[in-house]
Amino acid sequence: MANDKAARKSESKKSTGGGEKIARLESLDVFRSIMLFLAIFLYDISTLKNVPTWLFDTLKGKDQLGLLDIVLPGFLFAMGMAVPYALESRRQKGDPLWSVSLHVVLRTLALLVMGVFIVNYVIMGKSAVPKEWLGIGLVVCFFLIWNDYAKAKGYLIYGLKAIGIGGLLWFWYQYKAKGGGSFSFQSWGDLGILGWSYLLCAVVILVTRFNLLLSLVAAALAIALCTLPNSGIIKQLHLHQWAYLVPGGGVHVAFALIGAMTGVLVNRFGEKVNFNKTLLPMLLGLTLGALAAAYWARHHWVISRADATPTWLFICCAIFFALFVLIFWIVDVAGKGKWFKLLLPAGIASLSCYMIPHVWYNVQALTGWDYPKMLNDGLLGLSRSLVFSLACIGIAWLLMKIKVRLKI
Description:
The protein is globular, with a radius of gyration of 22 Å. By secondary structure, the protein is mainly α. It has 15 helices and no strands. It has a domain at 57-113 and 186-340. The chain has helices spanning 2-15, 26-44, 71-92, 97-122, 131-146, 155-174, 189-208, 212-227, 233-236, 251-269, 279-297, 310-333, 344-348, 350-367, 378-401. The longest helix is centred in the N-terminal third of the chain and has 26 residues, at 97-122. Helix 3 (71-92) packs across helix 7 (189-208). 65% of the residues lie in helices and 0% in strands.
């Protein structure tokens, strides 16, 4: 019996490239929840007065880094870390390759559709229906289509999805941009960037699985491609013509593939008992390596999120390696995950949290209600945004309790 148990454990390790049966990584949920909390908080403070400028993102061409500049990369990094776990978990459940591939394609399409609709909503002009109602309706349609209906049965699900799809089609049909144009592709938006990066990352992981060497090669290739000049191999291979499919010149995909490499590394060397001897020095080494790469890149590119420069890539990765190793030590090694209990729903219901502020801002616009002036300035304003961000996470938690959660 003992030999059988050892054999099963060995087989489980082989299936993941060295790790045991795939389990949810709580430290990754915490990392993602911190990024989402920052996204809500930093977006909400954009209208405040007398707050530090380093909290905001930087303009195109500027050579500096704001706190908001690390949020989208943080999501891409966390998404990349989660992809090997998510796809391998499906394989271990017995899902065939075609089923896993279909899941990847449908998830990508969901992110692309939401991204394009949100971008068009932002630039839309006057409509027979007030823009604020359309904004709220757009979020409702997203929930109707992509809600987690795992425990629901019957034709009701298809009916709700059909209503959501119908709502999006009506939005597309009646849409008029500010200049009078019709619904069209403008940009992918943050969700669309996540979608394309997820697709490319998932394709790589479907091939490499939990092979550490192959994941390192994939991350290295992604870094190399986004640091090569346009006059080099990128132009020769005509990759620049596909820039709309790879926003940011490949830098965003590099964030995801570096995250995937980190996820494989954690799966292979994330044993709690050997943390100080394995994962800790490895991630600290990656942190120092990223800082060294940033120092080199600084001689060739400015630090700019808007320009998606390699310098931005390396500095952000150094931050993420250091932050994740700290979170992993607190949550998985020291067992203090409860310290992040207030934020954790944001790591589990991330898309729901992302949509809640959009609804609130439209409600404010419809009612004409605003905060007292004292809450739009300085420290009190920052405190207000802090409470608002936690409230959004709390609402997402309440929605989960009644089985309402965006899940793609």
